[in-house]
Design brief:
With 173 residues, this protein is mainly α. Helices cover 75% and strands 0% of the residues.
Length: 173
Amino acid sequence: MLFLFIQSGSIFKSFQILILSALKFLLAPPLSFKLGFNFLQTVITTTIGGVLGVLFFFFLSELIIRLFKKIWPSIKLFFVNKKNIPYSIKPVKATIKKKFSFKNKFIVKTRLKYGLWGIAILTPILLSIPLGTFLANRYYKNKKSVIFSLAISVVCWSIIMSSFYAFIKIKPF
């Protein structure tokens, strides 16, 4: 497998594709073809980068969620229980209406209608791997099935997108 990357001319190019696949998967296959990779190199590089991104952001989001759950009660107490407010000033509870953007509505509808596989299928192309992995980790407790479904989605999208860009024949620089 190392032969595939050495043959392409530069390990640095492969590293670029790996990082781009982990962060913004949609842009990785066309750039890979632009850098001169063939179909097999593109599929392997984008798949490895995407799956490594899923694993990295899965464990990072797990750490962030645990830290937030641990720290949130103290933050909430700090802002709610203010003892130093003068008696003449009465705090008014303001109800802040949540504003849902199109993206938030789309994520909630996808989660409720299609579940984990809906989020997994949309993660590489629409949501981006960091956001999709965080959402899947946040809403679904079975860690093995979350990682498995996201990894399968990355592999499938890597093959689909690489096939599409190989079909339209993107020329290297």
